[in-house]
Amino acid sequence: MSDVTIYVSGVCGRITLNRPKAINALTLAMVTAIQTALLTWARDASIHFVLVDGSGDRGLCAGGDIRALYTASISGHLDESTAFFREEYRLNFLIARYPKPYLVVMDRLVMGGGIGISAHGSHRIVTERSELGMPETAIGFFPDIGGTYLLARAPEHFGTYLGLTGRRIGAADALRCRLADRFVASAHIPDLIEALERCASTDSLEPCLQAYSGQAPVGTPASQGEWIGRCFAHETVEDILTALRGESDPEAGVLVAELEAKSPTSLKVTLLALRRASLLPSLAACLQQEFHLAQALVQQHDFKEGVRAAIIDKDRNPRWQPPTLQQVTPEAIVRLLPATIEPSLDLSYPGLL
Ligand code: QUE
After folding, report:
1. Into how many domains does the chain fold?
2. Among this protein's residues, is 136 annotated catalytic?
3. What CATH number is given to the structural domain containing 41?
4. Atom of ligand 1 nearest to the CA of 113
């Protein structure tokens, strides 16, 4: 059995992530299988659109195959992690530029690499059970998969808040951050999928989606307050923490504690990558920066320690090195993310993109 189910239903190319025991976390084989299907369907005139969902009852996708990246990192097989990032980011770019409608059901958990195979799509559906997040600063990594592009373009510095804290958001906030387009109540999702699989052309997509769409329940209280945008607008992590400590909302104090538990190096390099991404002209340019940073970070202590604490030993007690923001030098950050990035990721698809 493959970890991704691929078939055709009428004019619809269907992809179902099928690794439910790992919340459909993306392996290299899954990434490659999705890429191959999308390329085949892009050239096949009998396929009019693509519909993606996930099997199991925990979520669309928990992220990338962090366990495999960890194993590659501790055994020094950097070619394996490089191959994974290359194919994953190429897939993210292919989805963003896909010439046919790419519909995706972002039900329940959608994190990290799961955001990468959904938020770049053209028709992104969330439900009242959706939980979207970019939790990588908790494992000594950063919001990749085009995350720096997406988060840097979310309104009112809400993307900086998401990328640094790793907080999950529901449907209303996902719509507001432009990570999703449409709300459908989870009770209607099976009927919607069945109806979409019966659509005869792209002309019937909008009416079909419209028939099942509804109003998202209101967002979290935190997302309503303007203080988030005020605090996360600062240019250094230290200044963000100082601003949060000066806020009266008790939720700000909770965020301080959460940020203090993340990898200090991850926080600093993530903030810099997000600020640079806001100045970069395209998703392609952001992916080039991410490809450089991902290869540098997987070799670092904090990635190995972060994955160990969160996923391998599950003791939730990472010992970051250096342990404080003050001890992360500007030189260490520049070594990870130099001012100019040599484009080394091939994002071309001959004959298509
Ligand atoms: C950060 C991440 C991931 C994570 C936890 C983080 C991630 C990922 C998983 C994950 C979750 C459940 C599984 C699994 C992997 O957790 O990318 O195999 O069963 O895939 O803090 O980026």
Report:
1. 1
2. yes
3. 3.90.226.10
4. 17
